[in-house]
Amino acid sequence: MQKVQPSRAFSGERLRKLRKEAGLKGSDIHRATGIDQRTISAWVCGRRLPNSQSLALLADAIGCRIDDFFTEANDVA
């Protein structure tokens, strides 16, 4: 019998938390990645989702793993 893996979803709140824990502002992420601050804000607020290339840039700038931006789909944070 095959195990069902729980669904994982990108969490803008996790992005915000990781950024703050790293002592970074949105403008710092913009400078490090070249990603527009409005786009980053849209991700944090849940209006848009980042693509895989953007996730890699974010993880590198913040100093975390891409997986750290994801939570179980039924988790709030």
Automatic annotation (TrEMBL):
Entry-linked Pfam families: HTH_3
Highest taxon, organism lineage: Bacteria
Segments forming domain HTH cro/C1-type: 15-69
Name of this chain's protein: Helix-turn-helix domain-containing protein
Source organism of the structure: Streptomyces ortus
